[in-house]
Amino acid sequence: MKAMILAAGKGERMRPLTLHTPKPLVRAAGTPLIEFHLNALAAAGFRQLVINHAWLGPQIEAYLGDGARFGLSIRYSAEGEPLETGGGIFRALPLLGDEPFLVVNGDVWTDFDFKRLRRPLDGLAHLVLVDNPIHHPRGDFRLDQGRVSDAVEGEASLTYSGIAVLHPRLFSGCQAGAFKLAPLLRQAMAAGQVSGEHFAGRWVDVGTHERLAEVERLLVAEA
After folding, report:
1. Which letter does DSSP use for residue 222 in this model?
2. Does pTM surpass 0.85?
3. DSSP β-bridge partners for residue 147
4. Smallest Cα–Cα separation from 89: which of 164, 190, 10, 200?
């Protein structure tokens, strides 16, 4: 199974750190955020990786190179202008092939074991969901007996972690350009084609300076 790290965002809320450094290369306790993913993917047995980029993307390529020092083979999907999550993945499909692939947001930090996702895909997508964080109390989706559906007001919900396995068929009928992933997922959910799991381990959406500090506290605590 191939994997893809989404690394095209500008990290507006992380300024001034991201004015001259792409968000995936922002460091937590001395280590670039994206490097945590690379080490975890290699440890889980992944070998072929695709990384998309836009803002300051050449810095990402210069730092990571071909991935050999991480035990990986990295190919890049340069976007120029950000294509959002759906458009970015769609553009990279020729590099990902015809089989299901893992995708992870470059700006989350987690101790999730990616090895758990190296298994056959039941449907068009499998989502890893987490407890709703303080900054996103309403959540995104419901999980019932391993199937995912859209959140309903007043009912228990979970938040999409930014970690998933997707089938290229999820993007059937899409056209090149910027578009979001969520509408495709919701369409597949309505057809019963999205499975999921609840991850209760450590996970931080590193979207602000405060959450970056939270990751650093966690890393220092385990050192």
Report:
1. H
2. yes
3. 144, 195
4. 164
